[in-house]
Amino acid sequence: MKHLFAALFLALGLLAAAPAAAQSEADLRTLIAWAAPLNDIQTRAQEAVRSVTGLTARMRGVSSPEEMEALLRAAQPTIVAARAQLRSLRSEADAIEPFTSTTMDQSVVGLTNIALTDTKTTIDLFEGAIADLEQMLPAVERRDAAELQRIAGRLVLFAANLLRSQASSLRLGQLQLPATDSAHHIRGARADLMEGLYAMLTVSTANDTSAVTAAVARARASIASGRGVLTTERAAAARYPQGAMLEPLFANKQQQLDVLDQFATDLESATARISPRSPMQDLVREMRVVAQHDTRLQVLAQEGSALAAQMISH
């Protein structure tokens, strides 16, 4: 049974590109091998950041400078360890050679190296944000309100750059899937919408929604492509006696595409409510509401991976 599903997944993946399947498969394996250490670095960088993100949540419950000082002092060992981890990961990223290929589309090659550059930039941003958290303690000890305000502004910018980091990770994951897999288009649409969320920030400083509009348009094109490929996947599976067993996986992808559609609509609507006069807290509130769609997409993606693993293991 395991070999049957492996063959079925391969057939579905190569369906629309059968004449060039061997070369495409070899290119894909090469890309996946190159991307593996980069994926690992991105995962560990996010883990390092998560080790201190609980601190910012606890800050919202602080009612006095003395409480804030005690909270920051207790968190110092975790903050220092996270910075050290990020510096180590930056060295690992520097050691990765740019991806090269004479047989792959050079636009794809270019995107892989953008992902490498973005990973390094993101690690630097992560470390900068954690350095700001480290500097909050002496600022609180001095009761330096002006410095704390500057740090808070930089942390808001850091939160925005997390969206760009997520978009970069999704793009890298997208490149490791063939365009004949609907998951390729789902990841692309998610990346587009993360870029759109980041672009919302520009609306609060300049009355220009064009970047958000462009991101939403790209996402909708990816969603449409994903729906078309999903239809092809279902038709291909129907030709196999056991093809119906893949329907839960297809239904999961359908759910992801539906959430992406609503994500795009709500992002567009939220952007229309933001202007250069909008307070920062209004912008943050709108972004949080829209970003809940991506939280749902993460859950669905995990459920889809679990379904696929379960099918292959039986």
Order of helices and strands: HHHHHHHHH
Which structural category fits the helices and strands?
Answer: mainly alpha
Q: How many helices in DSSP terms?
A: 9
- What's the count of strands? 0
Distance between the termini: 6 Å
Low-confidence stretches: 1-23
* pLDDT averaged residue by residue: 81
In percent terms, what proportion of residues is strand? Answer: under 5%
Oligomer: single chain
What is the makeup of the main sheet? none
Global shape: globular
Briefly summarize what is shown.
By secondary structure, this protein is mainly α. 83% of the residues lie in helices and 0% in strands.
Structure description:
This protein has 9 helices and no strands. It has 314 residues and is mainly alpha-helical. The longest helix is centred in the first third of the chain and has 39 residues, at 21-59. The radius of gyration is 22 Å and the shape is globular.
Which secondary structure elements does this structure contain, and how are they paired or packed?
Layout: H1 2-14, H2 21-59, H3 65-94, H4 106-142, H5 145-175, H6 182-203, H7 210-237, H8 247-272, H9 280-313
Helix pairs in contact: 2-3, 2-4, 2-5, 3-4, 4-5, 5-6, 6-7, 6-8, 6-9, 7-8, 8-9
Key terms:
314 residues, mainly alpha, 9 helices, globular, disordered N terminus
